[in-house]
Design goal:
430 residues, alpha+beta, two-stranded parallel ribbon, 7 helices, rod-shaped
């Protein structure tokens, strides 16, 4: 009877052990290694996508945790003890599915490809490079900020004194000379002749405006006065041989390139009385005559020969001429009839002024003036050749042909007139 109870108790114990074993066996779950690796790769792809947005990465790293237990799968192949220990135990302890899966994956690698194992956990511990917390979750505390672009290297700034001045469209310039001529002839000179002395002074002043856009305003004052003496003239101790006071003003508005619409004012007279040898008659005087011309037309600015030839050509088809004679005795000689001192006429005129720098020290200045009322014509052609000896010494040759059918006709020259002289002396330009 007792034996039956003993056998029954033994049978019950065996059944309980078998059921306990079955329950334990059911709790043991063998993880799928391929699935673990696949899930990890998927997590890497997701992480890469999140990194594309700086703001999302910053928020994620502040709120989420990163798992450092996967390190053993991607580090150089090393033999870890945990996998072997779990395989040798009859009833291994469970509780960390990720760690168990990693150990099983590594054991599969050790058995199939032992040649890939380059190190073991004992050596790592001896070297002191193994971490004890690789089987625990690690919190990665990273705080990313906005990306800052690199600061470019800037060159060292050198202080510069910069002065900004208001543009000055006015230009003032001028030139002048004082020259002398002495001619001595002895009383017994075989060809005859007469000793004489002469001097001439001249000054030209210009004040011009040019806004570099389309407006010009040119003003020029020309002054010239010369005297001569001769022993044969018993009436006059000296008399003038050059006398000019002339003012020219031109307002131009650009029409096309070098062409300008022009309004010109021209006024001229002389300084002193005009005399002839051994003759007491006065042929001209200050404001006797005085001529004033106002004209409207077109002007062409000349710039040729590489800048050596410059000047203006002024065509004035509509012009008003005014003449005033202060000396009553000279009114009729200047074309004024009756008891008047003035004369007004409408005319057309042309004025051309050019300067050609032939050489560095040789130049030619020319002025051609033509005025016609279609009843009377006056043409003046002034030519001055200048040789610069030094900066302050120059020689001049002046040739001045003239045509005026408003004067009395000469038996030899007709209506043509000519003046020529040469001299050497001081000159200055500014």
């Amino acid at each position: 009877m007792k034996q039956k109870y003993i056998l029954l108790i033994a049978a019950l114990l065996l059944m309980s052990l078998d059921m306990s074993a079955q329950r334990r066996s059911k709790k043991i779950v063998v993880p799928d290694t391929a699935k673990v690796v696949k899930d990890y790769l998927d997590s890497l792809r997701v992480m890469r996508q999140r990194l594309d947005s700086l703001q999302q990465v910053n928020n994620q790293l502040r709120s989420e945790q990163s798992d450092g237990r996967y390190y053993r799968l991607f580090a150089p192949t090393t033999f870890y003890h945990s996998g072997a220990q779990k395989s040798l135990l009859l009833m291994p302890e469970t509780g960390d599915d990720v760690a168990d899966a990693i150990d099983q994956a590594l054991m599969s690698l050790y058995l199939r490809r032992p040649d890939l194992v380059v190190n073991n956990e004992t050596n790592l511990q001896a070297a002191g490079s193994i971490r004890d917390d690789v089987n625990h979750e690690l919190t990665q505390e990273v705080d990313l900020t906005d990306y800052a672009a690199p600061v470019p290297d800037e060159p060292e700034v050198v202080p510069v004194q910069l002065v900004i001045r208001k543009p000055n469209f006015w230009k003032f310039k001028g030139d002048g000379y004082l020259q002398f001529l002495q001619n001595y002839v002895s009383t017994n000179w075989h060809k005859g002749g007469e000793s004489n002395y002469s001097a001439v002074a001249a000054a030209n002043l210009e004040l011009n405006y040019n806004d570099k856009d389309h407006i010009t305003f040119d003003n020029k004052l020309e002054m010239k006065l010369g005297f001569q003496t001769s022993p044969s003239d018993t009436v006059h101790k000296y008399k003038t041989n050059n006398d000019l006071l002339r003012f020219t003003s031109k307002l131009g508005i650009q029409a096309h390139k070098r062409w300008y619409y022009t309004l010109q004012l021209l006024a001229y007279t002389q300084f002193a009385r005009g005399l002839k040898a051994n003759d007491e008659k006065v042929y001209s005087d200050f404001t006797s005559p005085f001529d004033l011309n106002i004209g409207i037309g077109m002007q062409y600015n000349v710039n040729a020969l590489g800048g050596r030839l410059k000047g203006t050509l002024n065509f004035l088809p509509f012009s008003f001429n005014f003449r005033y004679v202060a000396r009553d005795a000279l009114t009729s000689a200047n074309g004024i009839k009756g008891d008047h001192n003035t004369l007004e006429k409408f005319a057309s005129q042309f004025t051309g002024e050019l300067k050609w720098n032939i050489l560095d020290n040789v130049s030619w200045k020319t002025r051609l003036y033509a005025n016609t009322t279609y009843l009377q014509t006056k043409i003046e052609w002034e030519n001055q050749f200048e040789l610069k000896v030094t900066k302050y010494i120059s020689a001049n040759l002046f040739v001045y042909p003239r045509f005026d059918d408003g004067n009395n006709r000469d038996d030899k020259m007709g209506y043509f007139q000519l003046q020529e002289w040469s001299s050497i002396g001081l000159s200055y330009s500014f």
